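job 3f2a | input accepted
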Amino acid sequence: MSQLGIFVDRKTLSNSEQLNALIRCRDVAETLGHTAKFIFPVDIHKIRKMDALFIRARTDPLNITYFAAQMARFHGIPVLDDPDSIRCCSDKINMYSRLIKEKVSLPKTVFLPKEELTVERVTQLFDELGTPLVVKEPSTSFSMRVEKVNDIADFFKVAHRFIKLSDWIVVQQYVESKYDWRIGVLDGGLLYACKYTIPSVTFKIQASVNGHIVYCGVESVPPEVVPPHVIQLGIDAGNAIGRGLYGVDIKNNNEDAYVIEVNDNPSIESGEDDCYPRVFEMIIENLFAA
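job 3f2a | predicted structure (290 res):
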């Protein structure tokens, strides 16, 4: 009997939605004839005894999830998400560079080094990309350190804060929309699709507003309702990164679609899979087929 390790931490279990999703994943694995064990960071040595590893904690090259992925790879154990995908998606310069290389549709994007942070260059960016602009610190996740700026003064205020963390910042054209598509991609194919409705008080999927965290609304959408070019764009974006598990955020405005982010090991606990009951089954089958 094969063993699936589900790598978690305390934050993973911080709310009932996440816990219920983990229990569903375990139950599906057992229905498919495997055993499933939750592995916490303190038990990371148990990874080498697993036949496959599914990471369900925040992935970052600077935390233990990356070490867990590397450990699985070292022992020849299939893992989602793999170290290469974690490393790429955690660095937006790397991620957007791969998307640009593969000619994946993006908002106009510029990588700005700190030595070019001048009034003349920023003025040029507003002229080229329009107003407002979106400024991102490359290691951002969960919409943190992503800001919309309306003028040069705002730009420098945000940029000076971000440049303390990175020698580069990402500057993008702002694309307005009432919702984002999230296309779940697994091994180059569609896993699920949903709409993330953006709260009116922000432009991001998740934001802090007046000291409170505001989240987007989630609506699972059957594939026949999703514009085909949006699904294809999501798949193309995932393939540009690798063959793992990705959540691709897409804005579709006036029939034009643009990839905003590619997230490795995306959320599947907020209803994204309501129209896709085989999500965990497909993930587990993919892991054990590797």
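job 3f2a | The longest strand covers residues 189-197.
job 3f2a | closed
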